[in-house]
Amino acid sequence: MIGLGSLNPMEDVQALIKGKVGEFLQAEGTIRRYLTHVSASIRSDAAGLMAAHKTLEQELGSAQAKIAQFQSGAWSLSDVIALGDVGTRLLQHLSRVASLERSASGVMAPQFGISSVAIPALGAVAVAAVAFVYFLRK
Hints:
Elements: H1 9-34, H2 40-72, H3 77-105, H4 119-137
């Protein structure tokens, strides 16, 4: 029988999170590469992104504990909101790194990914979806 998709929507969310964390880890190398760029503005932008990257890296550590609580079923709505916030800022950071890379290369290609305007809305949708699943389970 051909499956129509995942039986557990949370597995899809977890896979998405793991993929974005992988992109986040790769982004550090990208940022480091531009810390020595010829342009002072690119170096400055890269330095700001590196500081934000380190802060977000620490927050992802605490987010992993919340994810483990979520998987065990011991979580609260405030945990979901906190995870949504970290996830939103992670997506924004990745968008800014991609923007830095485009600026540094001098290429102004059309952006086909998620626009930075849509990222907060996606975070809100994710929080609402998780809350909906939570209330369905009760």
